[in-house]
Specification:
Number of domains: 2
CATH topology of the largest domain: Aspartate Aminotransferase, domain 2
Shape: globular
Order of helices and strands: HEHEHEHEEEHEEEHHHHEEHEHH
Helix content: 40-55%
Strand content: 5-15%
Largest sheet: 7 strands, mixed
Number of helices: 12
Low-confidence stretches: none
CATH class of the largest domain: Alpha Beta
Bound molecules: pyridoxal-5'-phosphate
Structural class: alpha/beta
Distance between the termini: 34 Å
C-alpha cells in the first residue's frame, strides 16, 4: 500500500522501466518460468478472456477439467467467445479424476481438442489439481493440445514450476498470493502458445499479444497503471526477501493449522467440516468449510464482518449458502491466523452454528507441524 500511495509517474521513463523489470523477474522466480509475460490492466477474469482470444479461433474445442466453481466461470467466458468447451466432470469435493483424461485423449483421434484447461487451485472448492500430472498424461498420449493453467490463487502461495511442468499458458492476477490491489492480470506464454497465437482468429484488440510485443513494455494498450506495478513489485520483493521456500512452507504450516481447527470444530460429526474430501488436494491457500445441514453461512459472515472486522469468503454457488471460506494466503503469520480462527469460532457461536472448540487444535498443529 505504501509503494502504491505516490503520485502517478511517467510510465515511459527509465525509472518506471526498472519497476517493470522487478515485476517480470520477481514473477518469473515465483512461477518458475522464463517465458514471455503479457500484462493487462484488468483483474483475473480478463486473463481468461485475453488468453482464449489470443490462442484460438471460433469453434475451437477446449477440454476443461472440472475443479469447482472457477472451472465453471472460465467455461462461461470461453463459450461467450464462441469456443466449444467440453467439460471433464468432477465431484467438486474432490476435483476431476485425472486418469479419465487418458480416455478423453485417446478418443480424440483427429486432435480436435486444442487445449486442456486446468484451474490449479479452485478458490471456491478449496481443491488443488495436479498440473504436472496433466502434462504427463498429454505427453504419454502423444496429444498436441496446449496446457492452460489458471494460477490466480496459487502464484506466491503454492509451489509452481511452469516450465518444468510444460505449461503453455498460465494466467494470474495481482490481488491474491501476490499481495497487492486487484487490477493487474497477466498471461505467461510459452513458445507453443506464441506459435498458436499466429493462427488464432478470435477478435481481440486491447488484449492483443501481437500489439503488445511491439510495445516496450508487454502491457495492453494505453496507460500503464504504474502505481499498481509498484505495488506488485513490492509484493514480489517481500516474497524474495522472505525466500520463496520459506513463503511456501509458511503457507503449508498455516493451512495445516487451519485444517486442524476445522477438523476439531466438526467434533463428533455435528459441526462444520472441510469441503475438500481428497486428502492430497486440500488447498494450502484457501480452506472451504461446509456447515451442518440446516445452517447457512451468511449470518456467520455478517457477524464476523460487522462485529469482528473479519471478512470470510462466501459460498459462490457451491452449496446454497452452506459454505464459508478462509483465505490463508499472502501476508499472514501465526498470530493473524490464530486471531482469525478465534474470530471464526466466536462468529459461529454468535450465529448459532454447532461446533466443538478448535483454536487449541490449531495451536497444537503449529507446535508440531506435520508435512504432507
Ligand atoms: C479470483 C480468481 C479468479 C478471478 O479473478 P478476479 O480478479 O476476481 O477476476 C480466477 N481464478 C481463480 C482461481 C481465482 O481465485
Amino acid at each position: 500500500m505504501q509503494a502504491i500511495a505516490r503520485p502517478v509517474e511517467d510510465f515511459a521513463a527509465a525509472e518506471f522501466q526498472s519497476v517493470y523489470e522487478r515485476c517480470v523477474h520477481g514473477l518469473r522466480a515465483v512461477v518458475g518460468s522464463e517465458n514471455e509475460i503479457f500484462f493487462y490492466a484488468a483483474a483475473g477474469h480478463a486473463t481468461w478472456e485475453a488468453t482464449f482470444a489470443n490462442l484460438f479461433s471460433p469453434g475451437d474445442t477446449i477440454l476443461m477439467l472440472e475443479s469447482g466453481i472457477f472451472s465453471g466461470f472460465w467455461t462461461g467466458i470461453g463459450r461467450a467467445l464462441g469456443l466449444t468447451i467440453v467439460t471433464l466432470p468432477a465431484d467438486w469435493r474432490r476435483g476431476v479424476d485425472v486418469e479419465r483424461l487418458d480416455e478423453a485423449l485417446r478418443q480424440d483421434t483427429t486432435h480436435r481438442i486444442s487445449a486442456v484447461a486446468v484451474v490449479h487451485n479452485d478458490t471456491a472448492s478449496g481443491v488443488t489439481l495436479p498440473a504436472a500430472e496433466v502434462r504427463a498424461r498429454l505427453d504419454a498420449a502423444g496429444h498436441p493440445a496446449l496446457l492452460l493453467l489458471d494460477i490466480v490463487s496459487s502464484a506466491g502461495s503454492l509451489p509452481l514450476a511452469l516450465d518444468a511442468w510444460g505449461v503453455d499458458a498460465a494466467m494470474g492476477s495481482s490481488q491474491k498470493g501476490l499481495m497487492t490491489l486487484p487490477g493487474i492480470g497477466f498471461t505467461i506464454a510459452g513458445p507453443r502458445a506464441l506459435a498458436r497465437h499466429q493462427q488464432a482468429r478470435l477478435p481481440r484488440a486491447y488484449f492483443d499479444w501481437s500489439r503488445m510485443l511491439n510495445r516496450p513494455l508487454r502491457h495492453s494498450l494505453g496507460t500503464v497503471p504504474a502505481n499498481l506495478f509498484r505495488g506488485l513489485a513490492a509484493g514480489l520483493d517481500l516474497i524474495a526477501a522472505e525466500g520463496l521456500p520459506a513463503v511456501l512452507a509458511r503457507h503449508q504450516r498455516l493451512a495445516h493449522a487451519t485444517r486442524a481447527a476445522i477438523a476439531a470444530w466438526g467434533g463428533a460429526g455435528q459441526g462444520p467440516m472441510l469441503y475438500c474430501q481428497h486428502p492430497a488436494r486440500q488447498s494450502d491457500s484457501v480452506s472451504t468449510i461446509l456447515l451442518p445441514p440446516g445452517h447457512t453461512a451468511t449470518p456467520l459472515r455478517d457477524v464476523a464482518r460487522a462485529r469482528l472486522n473479519v471478512c470470510f469468503g462466501g459460498d459462490l454457488g457451491l452449496m446454497r449458502d452452506r459454505i464459508f471460506r478462509i483465505g490463508h494466503m499472502g501476508d499472514l503469520n501465526e498470530a493473524m491466523l490464530l486471531g482469525m480462527l478465534g474470530a471464526a469460532e466466536l462468529a459461529m457461536h454468535q450465529a448459532g452454528i454447532p461446533h466443538a472448540p478448535g483454536l487449541a487444535a490449531a495451536v497444537q498443529a503449529l507446535c508440531a507441524p506435520a508435512s504432507r
